[in-house]
Write a structure and sequence with these properties.
Layout (H helix, E strand, L loop, with lengths): L15 E2 L12 E2 L6 H22 L8 H13 L6 H15 L10 H10 L3 H12 L3 H6 L3 H12 L4 E4 L18 E6 L2 H13 L3 E6 L13 E5 L2 H7 L3 H8 L4 E7 L10 H16 L2 E7 L2 E7 L6
Parallel strand pairs: 3-4, 3-6, 4-5, 6-7
Antiparallel strand pairs: 1-2, 7-9, 8-9
Amino acid sequence: MADRDASSLAVPWVPERDPSRAGKGIGLGYGVRAMVSPSEAADEAADEMVDDVVKAVLASRRYRSVHPATVRRLAQRTLSRGEHRRPVDAIKATKRALHQIFGAYLPQPPRYDRWLAALRDAPDPAAQRDVLRRAMVQHASTKERLDYLEALAAALVGRLGSPRSVLDVACGLQPLASPWWLDPGVEYHAWDIDRALVQFVGTCLELLGHRPHAAVVDLLGSPPWPSTEVALVLKTLPCLEQQQAGASDALLGSIPAPRLVVSFPTRSLGGRAKGMGRTYADRFEALLSARGWSADRFEVGPELVYVVDRRAPEG
């Protein structure tokens, strides 16, 4: 793909006929709307490069089902830094950004059809849970959580009871853990940036007896928020902050649910701790203090969890 030189796209002013100005003085009815400045030409060239990057990324097998809005946002951020003048470099940089927020968590192509078939054939709840466990192994976040899934579920039930509506943002395969802590019939909003994953978890939730509302959503794109009793924001905020500083506060302030479950990893995907838990705790607790929200904090496995209550205290 040839490089586009923005300076070569500037064109001289060409008169454009404006019938409303006929006979009304200088210009003899001609306007100046066709004037294109060098800066406008540069913006047009930049937009074309963003389009090219988005098209190339979505054509790749790895990222073809990722939300186009997310790909476009990452491509724009990559190009705005001015580090990648060639489209091929911008494509690689955008894919690296997608790997950090999505690809690293699904290292192998998911076998969604196979898991759905097994779930449909499961004869009882115990067999269903076995299928769900095998499916959750395929996503790095839920794979790690399997070691303490029962403990986390018990902690959530003890603090939240049995909510009838849940929003799960950047959900990954976490909705598959719903039988461990939710009763059937829950209105479950499952949001993620991957269309194939969202379709899969939506079907699973239906097979598990819930009322699914699964959607492909870019959290940094100001989505319309559903009203639910609880919102899950599990190991999500560091990823958002990496993309946009201040995103955590904006996101949590926008979610209408009165209770939030917010968690942070205390070690990296590679298993290193690096003081992550303390860093995340200090930052998040400063946010809680600034917002005036109360929270119950606990740790389970390598995960720091806050159950946040945003309701005004009684009395």
